[in-house]
Design brief:
By secondary structure, the protein is α+β, with helices and mostly antiparallel strands. About 35% of the residues lie in helices and about 20% in strands. Strand 11 (about 345-350), helix 13 and strand 12 form a beta-alpha-beta unit. Helix 13 (about 355-370) runs parallel beside helix 14.
C-alpha cells in the first residue's frame, strides 16, 4: 500500500501512454539451481564448528546496532569462498549499499558464486546498477513478481503499474544473506543507509539475527524455493536483448565504486573509519557470543501471491500447538500460537500495528488471566509511513482498556539535536537523526523468542510473503526482551495512557526543556505527537479498507 499510494499519485499523467508500456516476459527458459552442500573446510565453516555445541541446534546472535549489522554483512561477504545467497525485499541506493555491492563484486571476482533475489517493485528504477552487476559471470540476479519490463521511460513505467495493481500489492518481504551455506542472517533490515545508522536524516531502530548450525539448511531451502519459483524471472528476461549490459560494463561500475571508497577513505570519513574498526572484531565476537538452542525457521510459501485472498480474514489457530489449515500464513500461525501459550508475559516490538479483530481479542484476553503484555510500536511522530495508521486507534484504545502496556517511539530521542544542512546524503550525521522503529520481535515467558520480517498488520499476514526465526532459549529470549524493554525508557518512548474520561495521554519527558527544540515543546499531553501533515495522512488512510493496509 505504501508504494501503491506513491505510484497512483503520478500515474494520472500516464494514462494516455499505457499502450506503449511493455509487460514482463511470460515465457523464458527456466534454469533451476540449488545451494550445494556446504564445504566444511572453509574458514566460515571452521569458525562455526569450533563453537557448535549440538549438531541439531543453531547458533543465534542478535544484531541491534546498525553499524554492527553492516559490519557483519561485509565480513560474511569478505569471508565467503564458495557461495553467497542474498534475498531482500528492498535494496536502497546509498553509501552502505555501495560498500556491500563492492564486496559482493570482489567476492565474485575471486570465484564465489553469487545469487541475488530482489522484489519486483524494488527493482524498478535500478536498471543500470542491476544490469552492470548482473553482467559479471559469477553473479546471477533474479526478480520476484516483476511488475513490468525495465525498458521504457518514467511515464510508461508508471503507467504499467496502474495496469498491474494486483501484482503491485503482493510483495516478497524476506531479508536473507547466506555465506558458504554455513552462516547467515535474517530479520527486519533491508539494505540501505537508514538500516545501518548511516543516514543523515532518518534511521531505523531494527533487529537481525546472525545464524549458524542447523538453521542454515532451512534458510537455504527457503531461498531455493523462491529462487526457483514460477514467480521469479532472471533479470535478463525483463529487457530487450539490445538493452542488456555487456560483460565489460561491470568493470566500469567496479571502478566507480572504488573511486567512491577511495575518496571517503582519503577524507577520513567518520562512518567508514568506524565501520572498518568494527569489522576487525565483529564477526569473531558474534560467533563466540552465539547462544546455541533449538531454532525453527518458518517461511511463507513462494506461491502465496498466486492465490486470491480477497475474502480472507485474519484467523487465529484453533488451539495452542495446532496450526491453521492455511499454509500461506505459517509465520503468523506460529506467532499466534506463542501468544496463546503465554502464562506470564508477552513483550512485543513491531513497526506497524494493525491487529484486526481476532488478534485484538487474543491480546485482550491475556491480562484477564494475569499475563503481562508490553507492546512497543511507532508513534505518529516516528512512523515512516503515517498513512498506515488510520485504522489504528480503536485497537489501541481497546488494548489500553484491557491493561496492555502501550509504548510509542518518539520521533527524536529526548535530547537536543542538530540536523545537517540540506538533503545531500552524508556518510555520517553530526547530529542525531529521526528514529523510526522497524524491528519485528517478540518474547513470551522469557523463554521463546521471535525475530523476523513480519509486521503485525494485514499486509504482512494476508498479502506479503514473510520469514521468521523462532528460538526456544531463556538466554536468547532474555537478550531480546532487554532490547525491547530498553526502548520503553521515557527518553525513547511515550507511555500512552487511557484516562478515565476517555482521553489518550502521551506524557512529556521528565525534562521537557531538554527535548528536541523542534518537536512538541508546547504540545498538550492529550494531543497526539506528530505534525498536522501526518495527521492528515492518517485521516486519509481511513478511506482505504483495513485489509489493504
Amino acid at each position: 500500500m505504501r508504494e501503491l499510494i506513491r505510484r497512483i499519485s503520478i500515474v494520472g499523467m500516464s494514462l494516455g501512454l499505457i499502450a506503449c508500456a511493455n509487460t514482463p516476459a511470460t515465457k523464458y527458459a527456466r534454469v533451476f539451481s540449488y545451494a550445494p552442500p556446504p564445504d566444511m573446510s572453509t574458514p566460515l565453516a571452521q569458525k562455526i564448528s569450533q563453537v557448535q555445541t549440538n549438531n541439531g541446534q543453531s547458533g543465534v546472535y542478535p544484531l541491534s546496532d546498525g553499524i554492527e549489522a553492516l559490519a557483519i554483512r561485509t565480513s560474511l561477504i569478505k569471508a565467503a569462498q564458495k557461495t553467497l545467497d542474498i534475498q531482500y525485499h528492498s535494496i536502497h541506493a546509498g553509501n552502505s549499499t555501495t560498500l556491500l555491492l563492492n564486496e559482493t563484486i570482489l567476492a565474485a571476482r575471486r570465484g564465489v558464486k553469487v545469487r541475488i533475489l530482489i522484489d519486483g517493485v524494488d527493482a524498478q528504477g535500478k536498471r543500470s546498477d542491476i544490469d552492470q552487476i548482473a553482467a559479471h559471470p559469477n553473479i546471477d540476479i533474479r526478480v520476484y513478481n516483476p511488475v513490468q519490463r525495465f525498458n521504457g521511460n518514467f511515464i510508461t513505467r508508471n503507467a504499467m503499474f496502474l495496469l498491474h495493481l494486483k501484482k503491485l500489492h503482493r510483495r516478497m518481504h524476506h531479508k536473507i544473506l547466506i555465506a558458504d551455506g554455513v552462516m547467515g542472517l535474517t530479520g527486519g533490515r533491508n539494505i540501505g543507509d537508514a538500516y545501518f545508522n548511516a543516514d543523515s536524516d532518518d534511521n531505523f531502530s531494527d533487529l537481525d539475527v546472525l545464524l549458524g548450525g542447523a538453521a542454515i539448511k532451512s534458510l537455504e531451502q527457503s531461498f531455493d524455493a523462491y529462487w526457483n519459483s514460477s514467480n521469479t524471472l532472471p533479470v535478463q528476461a525483463l529487457h530487450f536483448k539490445r538493452d542488456q549490459a555487456k560483460p565489460e560494463e561491470v568493470q566500469v561500475y567496479d571502478r566507480k565504486i572504488k573511486a567512491f571508497i577511495d575518496k571517503a577513505r582519503a577524507q577520513n570519513n567518520p562512518y567508514l573509519l568506524a565501520l572498518e574498526r568494527v569489522e576487525t572484531t565483529m564477526l569473531p565476537k558474534a560467533v563466540a557470543g552465539m547462544t546455541w538452542a533449538d531454532t525453527q525457521i518458518l517461511s511463507d510459501p513462494a506461491d502465496k501471491i498466486n492465490r486470491n485472498p480477497s475474502s480472507r480474514v485474519i484467523k487465529l489457530p484453533d488451539a495452542v500447538n495446532t496450526r491453521s489449515n492455511d499454509p500461506d500464513t505459517l509465520v503468523f500461525n506460529q506467532v499466534a500460537q506463542m501468544i496463546q501459550s503465554a502464562k506470564h508475559e508477552v513483550v512485543i516490538a513491531n513497526a506497524y500495528i494493525l491487529l484486526g479483530e481476532a488478534f485484538t481479542q487474543l491480546l485482550e484476553s491475556l491480562p484477564k488471566r494475569g499475563v503481562r503484555v508490553v507492546l512497543v510500536t511507532n508513534s505518529l511522530e516516528s512512523n515512516d509511513v503515517p498513512f498506515v495508521m488510520g485504522h489504528y486507534d480503536p485497537y489501541r484504545r481497546r488494548l489500553l482498556n484491557a491493561g496492555v502496556e502501550w509504548y510509542e517511539l518518539r520521533g527524536f530521542p529526548n535530547v537536543r539535536t542538530v540536523r545537517t544542512t540540506g538533503r545531500k546524503r552524508q556518510f555520517y550525521s553530526n547530529g542525531q537523526s529521526r528514529t523510526t522503529l522497524h524491528s519485528k520481535a517478540m518474547v513470551v515467558d522469557n523463554q521463546n523468542a521471535f525475530v523476523g520480517s513480519m509486521n503485525f498488520d494485514p499486509r504482512s499476514i494476508i498479502w506479503n510473503t514473510e520469514l521468521g526465526v523462532f528460538v526456544d532459549s531463556a538466554a536468547f529470549a532474555q537478550r531480546i526482551r532487554q532490547l525491547i524493554l530498553n526502548a520503553t525508557q521515557p527518553i525513547y518512548s511515550y507511555k500512552v495512557r487511557l484516562e478515565s474520561d476517555g482521553r489518550l495521554i502521551w506524557p512529556s519527558s521528565p525534562a521537557p526543556s531538554a527535548y528536541d527544540i523542534r518537536y512538541n515543546i508546547n504540545r498538550p499531553l492529550d494531543q497526539e505527537p506528530g505534525s498536522n501533515f501526518r495527521k492528515v495522512e492518517k485521516w486519509l488512510s481511513k478511506l482505504v479498507p483495513e485489509t489493504y493496509m
